[in-house]
Amino acid sequence: MTESIFQGRSLLSTRDYTKDELMYLIGFAEHLKEMKRQNIEHHYLAGKNIALLFEKTSTRTRAAFTTACIDLGAHPEYLGKNDIQLGKKETVRDTALVLGSMFDGIEFRGFKQEHVEDLAKYSGVPVWNGLTDKEHPTQMLADFMTMKENFGTLEGLTLAYCGQGRNNVQNSLMITSAILGVNYVNATPAELEPDPAIVEVARAFAAKSGATITVTNDPVEAVRHADAVYTNVWAAMGEESQFAERVRLMAPYQVNAELVSHIENPDWIFLHCLPAHRGEEVTAPVIDGPQSVIFDEAENRLHAQKAVLALLMGK
After folding, report:
1. Does residue 282 come out as left (phi exceeding 0), alpha (psi in the -120 to 50 range) or beta?
2. Contact (Cβ atoms closer than 8 angstroms) between residue 147 and residue 141
3. Residue 42: which residues within 8 A CB-CB, separation 6 or more?
4. Burial of residue 75, with CB atoms counted within 10 A of its CB: 0-12 exposed, 13-18 middle, 19 or more buried
5. 191-207, pLDDT tens digit by residue?
6. Angle CA(241)–CA(244)–CA(249) in degrees, nearest 5?
7. What is the per-residue pLDDT for 315?
8. pLDDT digit string (tens) for 13-45?
């Protein structure tokens, strides 16, 4: 595979990339991680200007993209929700045309998948999805990079997600697992099962990769054969009003000592996209325990985002 196939592309969803392309991105992220450890400069994007659009606040996404730009020699410009008129006083198309004329690339973290897609459609520069209501592809690269670091491969692994099934992280986990050949089990209450359209997309990819996609209401069976267990907050940003109902529905799916005691693989790992609410979706003994790799996973956001920027914008 040549790096030229990446140049000028956007990353709006992992579904737009083949298995080989995603694995190349992960491999390049591993390479960049080692370069940083050895303090080897890699200014592949010297002279580039990158817009970081944030309708939603973030710790890891902002820190990762900002540091990635600086490590690569580019200049990041942060534009928060009070700095842009996206879809309010100004159409997304107009914003895209303006920013595309001034910047070499755009990262977007916001509320609507349509907005990131329109930015890519009209800006004329690569656009990267830092999170929308539908997907979180840049998180995925860090997640599967972390799994590969721990197991040496992704082929044949089983990833179990215990949590509410209708959110951006779950959507992307299911689709990306299917593309990469990772067996995926979603354990969620019946009221919050994944969007059937997402399941259909994932199963189509799984038919090609050999992965299995399972949706169940039984958390114990979901984790029994897992190599990695993943969870997420019960009420995402903008869903706070639903929290009491979520607690009622989600309590049986909490990742706690009793649940993980059913995992057969002694070398299983725990993943979380963070921020985590200890005592809600996961208990402290699990998230702070020896199986937890959440801070390696968080660090890998930097290296994964750097790989995306370097390959999709570099020469």
Report:
1. beta
2. no
3. 32, 35, 36, 71, 72, 310
4. middle
5. 999 999 999 999 999 99
6. 120
7. 62
8. 999 999 999 999 999 999 999 999 999 999 999
d(CA 157, CA 227) in angstroms, rounded, equals 6
What was the pLDDT predicted at 76?
98
Token pair, residue 165, equals 């099934």
Beta pairing partners, 75: 49
DSSP letters of the chain? --GGGTTT--BS-GGGS-HHHHHHHHHHHHHHHHHHHTT----TTTT-EEEEEESS--SHHHHHHHHHHHHTT-EEEEEETTT--BTTTB-HHHHHHHHHHH-SEEEEESS-HHHHHHHHHHHSS-EEEEE-SS--HHHHHHHHHHHHHHHS--TT-EEEEES-SSSHHHHHHHHHHHHHT-EEEEE--GGGPPPHHHHHHHHHHHHHHT--EEEES-HHHHHHT-SEEEE--SS-TT-GGGHHHHHHHHGGG-B-HHHHTT---TT-EEEE-S---BTTTB-HHHHTSTTB-HHHHHHHHHHHHHHHHHHHH--
Query: What is the per-residue pLDDT across 263-313, written as a single tens digit (0 to 9) for each?
Result: 999 999 999 999 999 999 999 999 999 999 999 999 999 999 999 999 999
Tokens of 223: 């984790």
Question: How many residues comprise the chain?
Answer: 315
